[in-house]
Each structure stands twice: as C-alpha cells, then as structure tokens.
Design goal:
mainly alpha; elongated
Length: 243
C-alpha cells in the first residue's frame, strides 16, 4: 500500500462565493483609497514645499506623513485587487506594510524636531501651511471614518489601519496648525518642533497597534465564510452576511 505524500499548504484563499454586501464593501474600499491617494499626493507636495520655504520641520513632517498615507492607499488598492481580494495572506501582508509606513515617519521626525529645538531654529510664518492643515482637520476625519466603516464589513485590519492613518492625519494637522499659528501670532517658534514630536509619538503608537492587529481582530475573518469577531472594529451588527 503506497504512502500518501503531504503537500505544503498554499496561500489561504476562500473558495466560497462572496456576498454582494462584502463585494460592494471591497469596491468601496478601493474607491476610498483612490480618493485618498490623489488627496495625499497633492497635500504632501504642497506641505513639503511650504515647509521648506518656511523652515518648518512640523510642516515638512506633515507632508512626508501625507506621502506615507498615499503609499498605504496603494497597499489597500493592491489588497483588494484580483485573487488577493479573498486572501488571508494578502490581508496580513497589507497589514504589515501599512504598519511599516508609520515606522518610517517616527524616527525621521524625532531627529529633525530635536535638532530644531537644540539649534533654536525659528521657522518663518506660513499662511499656506495654516490653510492646508485647516483643510485636513475638516476633511480627513470624514475619509478616515468612512474607511473604518468599510473595514468593519470586510473585517480588514489593513483597511482599518489606513482609516486610522487618515484620522491621525487630522490630529497631526491640528497639532501643526497650532504650532504654525502660535509662531505667527506670538512668536512661539518652539511650538513647531513640539508639534513634530507629537506627530512622531502618535505615528509610533499607531504603527505598533496596526502591526499587532489590535482593534480589528489580530487574525481577522476576511472571507464571507470565515468566523466573525466581536471587537471594536468588527461588531456583530456589521459582520458580513454568512449565508
């Protein structure tokens, strides 16, 4: 009697037919990511240019963060394209890639902010920077919340992480705005690097949480026939239709 050979398991991909609700949410996730990519590209370019002109490390850091968020959007577009749409492995890779974007930002901003404080570098007033950050304070929460709602339907930590990045962008924009306004109105130059340090700290925390999968199922049920989860990201009322 011949022995049976055990073949190595391939990537985890569901063979079940996705529900219409799940497919609509996946399409919505891609659309939101495309919108985010365009927004972040424009915002990042303007912020970096304005930051260089004004000598504002916080504004430059904000611009770099926008570019990083743009990369995260590309990851989500990749995640929900083709056969990767129903792949657990693709979700896990996307989750790690989104987390890495946070880790790229934190050390750079910390170094530049500390250097600015030590050298007492005084940034110039930037009206363009204040207008740009005020716009992000208003718009980014809307985009981030929309992505997190879609993430609950998809049970996708990667999508939830991208939405968190948009919310982080709003917090950072508010911090940078305070720094720019404080410098413009009261000459408080040190508010700019302090705002940059706030950016670095929040980015590091969010990167760790996204890497570990905290807040949206560390091993989420990605496919319509998977087990649902019951944390703050994937509530029972918003879990996909299993039937």
């Amino acid at each position: 009697m011949s022995s049976l050979e055990v073949q190595p398991a391939g990537p985890s991909v569901s063979t079940a037919t996705p529900s219409s609700e799940w497919l609509a949410a996946a399409k919505r996730a891609k659309q939101l990511s495309w919108l985010s990519l365009v927004w972040m590209s424009l915002e990042g370019g303007i912020a970096v240019a304005a930051g260089v002109l004004a000598g504002s490390i916080a504004l430059i850091g904000f611009g770099i963060d926008s570019f990083i968020e743009g990369v995260a959007s590309v990851v989500i577009i990749w995640r929900f394209s083709g056969s990767r749409m129903l792949s657990d492995a693709a979700e896990q890779r996307a989750q790690k890639l989104v987390a890495i974007q946070f880790f790229l930002l934190a050390p750079y901003i910390t170094f530049e902010a500390v250097q600015a404080l030590v050298n007492s570098e005084h940034p110039e007033v930037s009206g363009l920077g204040m207008v740009l950050t005020a716009t992000s304070v208003i718009g980014m929460p809307l985009l981030g919340i929309a992505k997190q709602r879609v993430a609950r339907t998809l049970n996708s930590q990667a999508t939830h992480g991208e939405g968190t990045q948009n919310l982080l962008c709003a917090y950072l924009a508010a911090a940078v705005f305070v720094g720019l306004a404080g410098n413009a109105l009261f000459g408080r130059w040190w508010l700019d690097p302090i705002a940059a340090l706030v950016i670095a700290a929040i980015a590091l925390r969010e990167g760790l949480e996204t890497w570990r999968g905290e807040g949206c199922c560390a091993a989420p049920a990605l496919t319509p026939d998977g087990d649902s989860c019951n944390d703050e990201c994937c509530t029972t009322s918003e879990v996909r239709n299993h039937g």
